[in-house]
Fold:
Amino acid sequence: MELVIDNLTKTYANGVQALNGVSLTIPQGMFGLLGPNGAGKSTLMRTIATLQEASGGHIWLGDLDVLRQHELLRKQLGYLPQEFGVYPRVSAEIMLDHIARLKGVADSRERKQVVEALLQKVNLWAERKRNLGTYSGGMKQRFGIAQALLGNPKLLIVDVPTAGLDPAERNRFYNLLSEIGESTIVILSTHIVEDVQTLCKRFAIICGGEVLYVGTPHDAVKMLNGKIWAKSIAKDEVDTYRENYRVIATNLNEGRLFIRISADGNPENGFEPMKPTLEDVYFNAISTKMDLVTL
Ligand code: ADP
Structure:
């Protein structure tokens, strides 16, 4: 099954065009949606999740017309927003049981089995009796995945948390997601390039409500072979360089500035050739649009 998004547009009442003709085909597996703040990611995800209306276009999940068949879509959907509230004085086990009942698992024995399997899957079985208010950021995130997986969704939408996960928790969260991606369409919305690099077979860069790239991370990086150059300059020279080159990254180190630029041919002037990275792909793509986004 595939999720097909066709020429999706969204203009908010205040006139902001958040989606500007987005078309994407998303197969089973982990798909990254990468873009800066304000790119339109949340608008796109909320629209797919039927939480808000589109202004135009179509979305299909297999044969299902997502924008018209809200109820049917919701039965196939798991959604993990970036921020989600938990009841602090309720345990994970009781909360999941409650959500399972809301999702229509009426038989209590069946519910017990489903909840146990999910708690094992997200590695919270040992902590199942603890109140959610005492969970760490990573544990809450894994609980969020468990609740999103109730009902075996065919489509899982995850708005990646920007903070609150330590490296070990992050790793566990990554492993869990990639396991789920083996049997589900998982859309991962993020502005962290590393998330996409680690997890996603395919990804799209979205900015200013438009898709700037869609494909595999590997192919994206290959396209920049021979086009990335770097140089160390004095801090006060950066504006001049910005005027003359396409500067895609700047890093400060011991008072000097390292700049990376993209250029089709050798820019000379002391620039050294660099091996392109996925971060270069991202910043190169959005550099054309960034003024629009920061307005
Ligand atoms: P992202 O999730 O990539 O940060 P959003 O989808 O939240 O991007 O926002 C895309 C654009 O739409 C931004 O310019 C944002 O200010 C605007 N926007 C988002 N939600 C609303 C809303 N409810 N009303 C008006 N404008 C909105």
Observations:
- The first strand starts at residue 3 and ends at 11.
- The chain has eleven helices and 14 strands.
- Residues 108-121 form the longest helix (14 residues).
- The chain has a mean pLDDT of 91.
